[in-house]
Amino acid sequence: MTEYLVLLKLNPAKLVDTMDALRDLPEKPGPGLDLHYLMNVFGTWDVAMWFDAENPAKAVDFVHKKIAQTPGVVDVYAVPTFPNKKPQKEKPAEKTKASENE
């Protein structure tokens, strides 16, 4: 499954109602779709959503027919993503060595 990050701009006058509608989305909003996160973000965009889709057609359908049509959603920017290497945790021996150099 491909992961997607969707950034949303919301109408400030409908912010509360729009956020409630987005929060009410089920974890599985449709076949082949898994919604992982809905986050408030600050700056140019108001909300970020992270989901998986079985294929690009399902992702496009979900974004255009469900998310973009939610009352109060003004703009949508979807970005397909892919898993990357997780950051490595510092090993205890490296911590000790780094502490000695200070």
The CATH topology assignment is Alpha-Beta Plaits
Number of separate strands = 4
Question: What is the end-to-end distance?
Answer: 45 Å
Helix and strand content put the structural class at: alpha+beta
Mean pLDDT: 87
Question: Which spans of ≥5 residues are poorly predicted at pLDDT below 50?
Answer: none
Largest sheet: 4 strands, antiparallel
CATH top level is Alpha Beta
The number of helices is 3
Helical coverage, percent range: 25-40%
What overall geometry do the principal axes of the alpha carbons give? globular
Overall number of structural domains = 1
Describe the structure.
With 102 residues, the protein is of the alpha+beta class. It has a single domain, classed as Alpha-Beta Plaits (2-Layer Sandwich). The protein has helices at residues 15-23, 56-67, 92-100, and strands at 2-10, 33-40, 47-53, 73-81. Strands 2-3-1-4 form a 4-stranded antiparallel β-sheet.
Top keywords for this entry?
single chain, 102 residues, alpha+beta, Alpha-Beta Plaits, four-stranded antiparallel sheet, 3 helices, globular
Topology (SSEs and partners):
Blueprint (H helix, E strand, L loop, with lengths): L1 E9 L4 H9 L9 E8 L6 E7 L2 H12 L5 E9 L10 H9 L2
